[in-house]
Design brief:
eight-stranded antiparallel sheet; globular; 26% helix; Glycoprotein, Type 4 Pilin; Dna Ligase, domain 1; six-stranded antiparallel sheet; D-amino Acid Aminotransferase, Chain A, domain 1; alpha+beta; 697 residues; 4 domains; binds adenosine-5'-diphosphate
Length: 697
């Protein structure tokens, strides 16, 4: 524990190097922060809640722990098999294994998590986002077990849990909702009649929906029945509840949400808006605060509506009321509509923390410990601008397919106005079991443009080698003219997909060449001149005293074979790029399994050498047969034959990995295997005999 308590920006994060952030006012100047510091100065949170269990993983678990530890709480982690070595597990004071990788056998097992909480004496459970965070039964079960659930009362979660009931509730609280039908009649003809009345385009939404599933836009009456069927099917499969609602599709839609906060004394305030209009498949990609084009009048109207919606369900803690705004004429006080309320902390909460100077997790814990909100609406003010980008392990060039695997290199940005919330580290792994988010990068500045410029620069400094990422795509978004000018709605990404690089792109030959050069030079250095062929001129390393003519050198880049023309001289190897103008470029080369990962301009390729000599080793041995030897010192990857096997000339016998390259050893002639030595995984010395082949019979 360090000396000073109080609301400070969440200190340092997992792999974050710095948190320099808030422009404008300093902590000491803000009456809000001074007030909260006084409240918390007594150490009241940890006196009431001495320990916390986070029923979550990754960056959010770490994020919550950092604040909890600062407040003097004991941190308890639960983890699945896949997260055994994760940073949040190491960070915690104690950690408990709760099951296999699959979430439904670990992070979604409320009973098991509560049992761990009881056994470890956890005073409270923070659910993070996703998993059990909006599960009212889990909130009830915590309470029944005598553990504080860091979130709203179960009744508020239930009331806002289904989109239809939530809309009805909002309507009752005089909060504007999107015109449409959210009743119980699910008859096709009836729903179509309602859609006709609303006027196309309409949006069909699963009432139990989330994550954009079960949502279909319908352009006209003729498409309605098919779209309904497909939405219902998706809803049934995803949520076990096929019910839908139908509403007007808002044109030029902007997603603007309001962060609300309540305490258990009936006080509710809002912490301003976040604009999350940059979306892909209805999922947020970039979030910012304040919303471009927001006026004091619209902010007050939206803020009040959000506070009313929260009050209507007796809300306590952190929540978000999402609105859809018709952005055709900018943001207007009479053109925004309630969509739903998320009864938890959101992924994008850091942008609100950045512009308000508050630590929302600290506030959550304060309220959960029975504290009153230490400020009123009038105390709150916005400082500067903040933008968050979600760095994902996915491949924009291949339809944003999730990408997994080891993080061979991970360099996250740092610098003035940059905050990074991450849950992974270099050497760790992005697994297929959970959301493939690598980190959230949050940039702030005195103005929106300054924040966007910082974010673009930060993304330029980001290096991820291993899984494919959306780094380049995010950077291009920050640089996109329309977005920078504040002219965008939720279809901005779809409209500009190609310009943003979300399309198949040609191989970056120069980058691949840089990788190939490294591999060739490494190979040359490591392979002694008296190589395994005994013929220096046949060697792949190409050491020579005078410049050699260029030779075709096959390599693979992400599995695609490319033939480069390489040339050796006394200076080393160079690649002839066929007249491509030479450019100074920053390229990062990361040695990885059997190859090198080349990262250039936020794109990466995995480059491997292809053995130019088809390994066809022949050599007499004492028995008068033929022996196949390891071409270099390396590792036996596979052995395909055993003594007694009949083989044909050219047949694959074994694979040896050496010099980041797989060497396939093939049979030099027909015959019968007389000897096959070594277990896969074993080290083999250069020249070691692996397989011997004798005559049949
Ligand atoms: P989910 O809970 O599945 O994420 P939401 O109701 O939060 O679904 O909507 C997700 C996104 O879909 C919104 O951010 C917005 O971009 C779009 N959307 C939702 N309702 C409408 C509407 N009536 N008109 C236009 N777009 C909408």
């Amino acid at each position: 524990m360090t000396g000073r308590r109080g609301i400070v920006p969440p200190a340092s994060h997992a792999v974050s190097r710095t948190y320099a952030g808030r422009p404008g006012k300093t902590k000491a100047e803000s009456p809000v922060i001074t007030g909260l510091m006084n409240v918390l100065a007594s150490g009241s949170v940890s006196a009431v809640l001495p320990s916390i269990l986070v029923a979550n993983r990754g960056e959010i678990a770490l994020r919550v722990f950092r604040t909890a530890r600062r407040l003097g709480m004991r941190c308890i982690a639960v983890y699945s098999e896949a997260d055994r070595d994760a940073p949040f597990v190491r960070f915690a004071d104690e950690a408990h294994h709760i099951g296999p990788a699959a979430a439904r056998e670990s992070y979604l097992l409320g009973d098991r998590i509560i049992a761990v909480a009881k056994a470890s004496g956890a005073a409270c459970i923070h659910p993070g986002y996703g998993f059990l965070s909006e599960n009212a039964d889990f909130a009830d079960a915590c309470k029944a077990a005598g553990i504080v659930f860091v979130g709203p009362p179960a009744s508020a979660i239930r009331a806002m849990g289904l989109k239809d009931a939530a809309k009805a509730l909002a309507e009752k609280a005089s909060v504007p909702v999107v015109p449409g039908y959210h009743g119980s009649n699910q008859d096709v003809a009836f729903l179509k009649g309602e859609a006709d009345k609303i006027g196309y385009p309409v949006l069909i939404k699963a009432v139990a929906g989330g994550g954009g599933k079960g949502m279909k836009r319908v352009e006209g009456a003729a498409e309605f029945a098919d779209a309904l069927e497909s939405a219902q099917r998706e809803a049934r499969n995803s949520f076990g509840d096929a019910r839908v609602l139908v509403e007007k599709y808002v044109l030029s839609p902007r997603h603007v949400e309001i962060q609300v906060f309540g305490d258990s004394y009936g006080n509710v305030v809002h912490l301003f808006e976040r604009d999350c209009s940059l979306q892909r498949r209805h999922q947020k990609v970039i979030e910012e605060a304040p919303a471009p084009g927001m006026t004091a009048e619209v902010r007050a109207a939206m803020g009040n509506a959000a506070v009313e919606a929260a009050k209507a369900v007796g809300y306590v803690g952190a929540g978000t009321v999402e609105f859809i705004a018709d952005g055709r004429d900018g943001l207007r006080a009479d053109r925004f509509y309630f969509m739903e309320m998320n009864t938890r902390l959101q992924v994008e909460h850091p942008v609100t923390e950045t512009i308000t100077g508050l630590d929302l997790v600290e506030l959550q814990l304060h309220v959960a410990a029975g504290g009153k909100l230490p400020f009123t609406q009038g105390d709150l003010a916005i400082c500067g601008h903040a933008v968050e980008a979600r760095l994902y392990a996915e491949d924009p060039e291949r339809g944003f397919l999730p990408s997994t695997g080891k993080l061979w290199a991970l360099h996250l940005p740092e610098g003035e106005g940059i905050r990074v919330d991450a849950g992974v580290e270099e050497g760790g792994e992005v697994t297929p079991f959970y959301d493939p988010m690598i980190a959230k990068i949050i940039a702030s500045g005195a103005t929106r443009i300054e924040a966007l410029d910082r974010l673009a620069a930060a993304l330029g400094d980001t290096i991820v080698a291993g899984p494919k990422t959306n780094t380049r795509f995010l950077k291009k978004l920050c640089e996109a003219e329309g977005f920078r000018a504040g002219q965008f709605d939720t279809s901005f990404i779809d409209r500009h997909a190609e310009a943003l690089g979300a399309a198949a792109l040609p191989v970056d030959q120069a980058a691949v060449a840089a990788g190939a050069i490294l591999l060739l030079e490494e190979q040359a250095q490591a392979a002694p001149r008296t190589g395994w062929t005994d013929d220096p001129w046949a060697m792949a390393d190409g050491f020579a005293l005078s410049p050699q003519p260029s030779v075709p050198t096959p390599v693979t880049a992400d599995g695609e074979t490319i033939t480069l023309r390489t040339r050796w001289s006394s200076d080393g190897v160079s690649v002839d790029l066929g007249g491509e103008p030479h450019q100074e470029r920053e390229v990062t080369l990361v040695m990885a399994d059997e190859g090198v990962i080349v990262v250039a301009d936020g794109r990466q390729s995995w480059v491997r050498l292809v053995d130019p000599l088809s390994v066809d080793l022949e050599g007499g041995d004492a028995a008068g047969g033929s022996s196949v030897k390891a071409p270099m010192h390396g590792k036996l990857i596979a052995l395909f034959v055993k003594p007694g096997d009949r083989v044909e000339k050219g047949q694959r016998l074994a694979i040896v990995e050496a010099m980041k390259m797989e060497h396939v050893l093939t049979a030099p002639r027909d015959g019968v295997v007389s000897e096959a030595v070594g277990e896969p995984g074993a080290q083999v010395a250069q020249g070691a005999r692996i397989v011997s082949i004798g005559d049949a019979g």
